[in-house]
Specification:
Blueprint (H helix, E strand, L loop, with lengths): L25 H13 L5 H12 L8 H10 E10 L5 E5 L3 H12 L1 E13 L2 E11 L22 E13 L2 E8 L8
Parallel strand pairs: 1-6
Antiparallel strand pairs: 1-2, 3-4, 4-5, 5-6
């Protein structure tokens, strides 16, 4: 079947495009957040500073470009919803909450890269389907502590995990998010 375009006259009046549910650019905010917070590479100097800060008890250290992105793209009172290892609901908030999450992920998994598979923005919510890649290797190189998935010692192997997060955007910043999983939690 060749379709209507081959007929001398159109079949029906043209249908309008679907409505634009992302008039505020919320999908762009989420994409920028993922790129600038999660996909900013850590340098060797960042890793040295990370280890020094961890030894001093600072669990909110992140490199300056990531700290700047967090300041720009999320609110100080952003609420993160997720589940712990026992699948119990957990929520957290606070000025340093996201920095602590990024710090924790960097501690237990290296070379993290998050690919956006799909974004679905609807009004103030954006659902992001994501593929997380990394290496189950601790930043401190220790084998007597768990790695990315609670293994002792960490496997040292690359991993891939598909997940989704729903973000709520308010006034151009991430106000809330819900981490959804089919497997292990990313930020326990």
């Amino acid at each position: 079947m060749a379709g209507c375009s081959t007929l001398p006259t159109p079949c029906d009046p043209a249908e309008p495009d679907p409505p634009d549910y992302d008039e505020q650019g919320n999908g762009d905010i989420v994409r920028q957040f993922i790129e600038q917070v999660w996909n900013t590479p850590w340098t060797a100097e960042d890793d040295r500073e990370f280890l020094a800060q961890m030894a001093a008890g600072n669990t909110a250290f992140v490199p300056t470009p990531i700290a700047t992105a967090l300041e720009l793209l999320r609110r100080d009172d952003t609420v993160r919803h997720r589940r712990d290892a026992d699948q119990k609901p957990v929520k957290s908030s606070g000025k340093d909450d996201y920095a602590r999450c990024v710090n924790r992920v960097h501690e237990i998994a290296q070379d993290i890269r998050i690919a956006v598979i799909d974004l679905l923005p609807v009004e103030d919510r954006v659902t992001a389907v994501l593929q997380v890649r990394g290496v189950d290797r601790r930043a401190d190189g220790r084998s007597d502590l768990p790695g990315a998935f609670g293994r002792m010692p960490p496997s040292g192997q690359p991993f891939r995990l598909q997940t989704a997060t729903v973000y709520r955007i308010a006034n151009g910043k991430i106000a809330e998010d819900w981490l959804l999983y089919g497997g292990m939690p990313i930020c326990p």
